[in-house]
Amino acid sequence: MTAFAELLFRHRLAAGLPQKELASRSGLSERALRDLERGARTPRWHSARAVAAALALDGDDLRAFLATARTATPAPAATVDATPTPGDLVGRDGELRALVDLATGTRYRLVTVTGPAGVGKSRIVAELGHVLARRTDLEVRTLDLSSVREPELVGELVAAALDSGVSRLPPVDRAAAHLRDRRVVLLLDRFEQLVAAAPDLTAFLRRCPGLTLVVASQRPLQVRDERVVPLGPLAPDAAAALFTRRAAAVSPHLTLDAGGTAEAVAAICRRVEHLPLAIELAAARVRLLHPVELAERLDQQLQVLTGGMRDLPVRHRSLRAAIEASIEVVAEDARTLYTWLGAFACGVRLDDVEAVAGALGRDRDWLLTALTELVDINLVRAIPAGDGTEEFATRYKLPDAMAELAGERLGAAPDGERVARAVALRYLARLREGSDGTGRPLGDRDAANVRAAIGWAVRHQVDLLDGAATTAIYRYYETTGRLVEGEELLGRVAAAGPAVAWVRAGQLAALRGDLHAAARLGTRVLHAPGGDDHTARATAHMLLAQAVTEQGDAFGGRIHLRAALIDARRAGDILLVGRVLNNLSAVSVERGRLRDAERQLRAALEAKRRGRAGPVELGRTWFNLAEVSYEQGHADKAERWAGEAVPLLLAGGFPRLAALAESTRALALLHTAGPARALPVAEHAAQLLGTEGDDRRIEAVLDLRRSVIQHAAGELAVARDTLARALPVGLDHTSRDRDEVAQALVTHAWYLVRRDPTAAAALLGAGQGLRRRPFPEPTVAMTARTAAAARAALGAGGFAREHARGTGLDRDGLVALCDRVAIPPA
């Protein structure tokens, strides 16, 4: 007789009920009740509940009765080798071996396997049970807690799983008396909804010295002596192997090595973040879709990743069900925060989500409690930021599928629009603070949040996007180098709101090198109705001045900047006056008036200080002073002023311009201290630039300058590769970029002339042919010495011939000529 059958028999007799009467009261057939009482049938949960209600059981009697209704099935023993084998468990060999060691060792007796929904916790614990069952030195028991929601039942269920029998003794005492010193491993699945009962598990471990518990739970139990084993997504190769195996099972004729298929499988696995359940559900779709088609349809994973095997638990039949099962077991506050996080388009820092929660009436304690629960149960990932501006910050991110479900819940929530508005207002405020230097600048990691905030304002409250906001938007996209995206968004803002947004879009177009688009957008503002917005007009004139100056019309640029200066003064904006003076210096440089440029920059610096400019504005002018000083041949001043600019630009969240200033410092060091000092600074400039954004112009300038310093340092092959990578970009953009190419070519000629005077003469000709304005003072002397050395080696006729050849080279010819840079000394 089973424990349940024995209790049923006792309680029925105590109630004085015949089998027929009890069957009638509980809604069971008389035969079914008779089989249960004989132990010939395993009770179902709803049947046990119905019988308990009919018997009017409560308190300890009810808990013991229901606990014995859950059968714990011992794994079969065997006498084969216990070495783990992969079997049907793909990509988890290492984790399985580690679990075997932990379960069979004596150091840890409570092992908790954690991880997000669908990562395979139940699967690996089941496989562990099969492996351990092959041993003869221990017993294995399993206990599935999927349908249990009452923590107070855990003690009785564990005792029943350990075959401890039924008595009036507490469950722990019964288990201790039954097991004594026997070596037993109990595997418990789906414990995340029962963590309140974790102390009960530790009580069993204290009383049963031979017992080890291995628990599968989405969150740790947080008790002493617990060893947590986090289970993460599969490695890319293992993920592809799992997809291939599952796809072959449902579509045996599918050829996964056909053209493009392997890449599509890899893309699918990346898109679902290498989560085993998602991979298996995706593979099941190859009955209908080729992997290439499937890879294109995973933007909405919750709709696609369904249709799991019918003999699996409901939570394993779709990705949505797996995530919803996780949400069900957290507290109401955590569910609310999970829904709110659907308003963030990407990860979020704690201070940002705190600000949003505060705007929605929730305090820090509420937020930290809810966020901790979401992180513990793996619905939210805590990710170290790892970039220069957020070195010590942690970001909190919903994985893609969980973010998709949170977005759905937010759309259906009564306060969904209020939450979306609070998030948008937070990031619009952050844009302003980062632009004027009063707050922490936003980095590239928040690009999706910024984009969503701007989109929300365009759709719902365009008056938020005034002139200051559009300036802040422009600054953000300038500093992050996301020029194409910023130009498109500012165009949307301009179509719905202030005309000055057209100027800001044009400024980003100019940074991309599209001067025609920049001029068109600037002119649009000048011709707009009204004309009393002097700030917008001044900014438009500045944009037009940049466009015409870079196309070789310095006189036209000067006219526009004089008009801009008048409008800036009419606007009463001293900071804007400083910006105009800063841009006037660029026109003076184009006209070869370097002393005028320096005076204008010093005046711009003073105006910006009076206007309480932020670090980016000040850093930009210090950088321009460094560039002008270098052009004048004052390398020591250039190094000092570039050194002033770099920390200011970094503090203002503009690492791209900081990288350019650092490269100017490296060039100055090359003249004052030599290549050994200059090279580390040039490499640091490349590190500051990073890899984000689509602004390839700054990257090309840095590479051109770095290639010169690498050449000077004797790193010839590296210098060649760096130069060849930068040349096409520099030649395809504005005349200012071509001037940088020319500067690099003539400098390479100087370092090459003693090894290869023929190539040096051609490089010199190419550089002098490209340059629109005079070379910097140090370069003038260098080119004269290069020409003299090449002429001495080749003769006047030979030098003239190679020089002329270099002048006539097209882009491909110049790139080919770069190979000569790598020729080693004889």
UniProtKB/TrEMBL annotation:
InterPro entries: Cro/C1-type_HTH (IPR001387), Lambda_DNA-bd_dom_sf (IPR010982), P-loop_NTPase (IPR027417), TPR-like_helical_dom_sf (IPR011990). It holds the Pfam family HTH_31. This is XRE family transcriptional regulator. It comes from Phytohabitans houttuyneae. GO terms for molecular function: DNA binding. Residues 12-62 form the HTH cro/C1-type domain.
